[in-house]
């Protein structure tokens, strides 16, 4: 196959020799030998046939995979930034993974940094999480109480176990959840193993943690401690309306409606209304 380039237009074209054409004509499929474009059912079948191959006696279909999208970048103040960095700049922090020591340290560091930048504006905690380590979660809880900024909590999706406790610990009057959010509260779970003394010691420690969590939850919900002990012995699930009645949240977040007049527009909290 010879490649010729036409200098004036820099146009590339392929010129087949007679030998090349004769040697390959028999190998080409019918829809190519005719020289006519035939985009029909037969054409598609032939294409699909040639997209497959045999390996170890088994027919395997060729697969085309997409590259992962990854973390999107968005335009923010004339620059493209990671979406999570943009949300942090807007004082919005997400809990979206099971809470462990690493995630807890990152969240605590972010909260302390944002509070140092501006302690007069609320911080927003968005929760969509199914549990985590109690000690690591209590580090987040204590930081929330330590900050000068108030922490407004929002639940999207679900909050199971200790994240539900963090949800209830938000700024009173501003705790909210989306309409189809599910909230579940249960007793702490231990993983004691080994000698009897080790199991007994962990049981005593878990009992102290449970009693502390229930007393703190009573402060945030307004429920009697006895009722919380009774309800959470077997675990209790809440929809959004039940969570309001129990004191875990204050309202159901609804989509904000745009006003028709500029004078009626008010500055609202970022994210969910």
TrEMBL record:
InterPro entries: ClpP, ClpP/crotonase-like_dom_sf, ClpP/TepA. Coiled coil: none annotated. Keywords: Hydrolase, Protease. GO terms for biological process: protein quality control for misfolded or incompletely synthesized proteins. One of its GO terms (molecular function) is ATPase binding. It holds the Pfam family CLP_protease. One of its GO terms (cellular component) is plastid. PANTHER family: ATP-DEPENDENT CLP PROTEASE PROTEOLYTIC SUBUNIT, ATP-DEPENDENT CLP PROTEASE PROTEOLYTIC SUBUNIT-RELATED PROTEIN 2, CHLOROPLASTIC. Belongs to the peptidase S14 family. This is ATP-dependent Clp protease proteolytic subunit. It comes from Rhynchospora pubera.
């Amino acid at each position: 196959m010879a490649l010729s380039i036409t200098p004036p237009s820099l146009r590339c074209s392929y010129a087949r020799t007679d030998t090349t054409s004769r040697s390959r004509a028999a190998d080409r499929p019918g829809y190519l030998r005719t020289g006519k474009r035939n985009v029909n059912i037969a054409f598609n079948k032939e294409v699909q046939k040639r997209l497959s191959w045999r390996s170890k006696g088994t027919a395997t279909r060729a697969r085309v995979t997409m590259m992962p999208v990854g973390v999107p970048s968005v335009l923010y103040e004339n620059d493209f930034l990671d979406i999570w960095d943009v949300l942090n700049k807007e004082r919005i922090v997400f809990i979206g993974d099971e809470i462990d020591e690493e995630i807890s340290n990152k969240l605590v560091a972010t909260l302390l940094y944002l509070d140092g930048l501006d302690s007069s504006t609320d911080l927003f905690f968005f929760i969509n999480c199914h549990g985590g380590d109690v000690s690591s979660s209590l580090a987040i809880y204590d930081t929330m109480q330590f900050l000068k900024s108030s922490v407004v909590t929002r639940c999207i999706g679900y909050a199971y176990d200790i994240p539900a406790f963090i949800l209830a610990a938000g700024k009173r009057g501003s705790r909210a959840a989306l309409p189809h959010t599910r909230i579940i509260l249960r007793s702490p779970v231990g993983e004691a193993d080994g000698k009897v003394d080790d199991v007994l010691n962990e049981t005593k420690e878990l009992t102290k943690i449970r009693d502390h969590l229930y007393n703190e939850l009573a402060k945030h919900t307004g429920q009697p401690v006895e009722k919380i002990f009774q309800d959470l012995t077997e675990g209790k699930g809440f929809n959004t309306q039940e969570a309001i009645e129990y004191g875990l949240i204050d309202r159901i977040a609804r989509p904000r409606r745009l006003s028709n007049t500029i004078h009626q527009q008010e500055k609202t909290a970022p994210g969910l209304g």
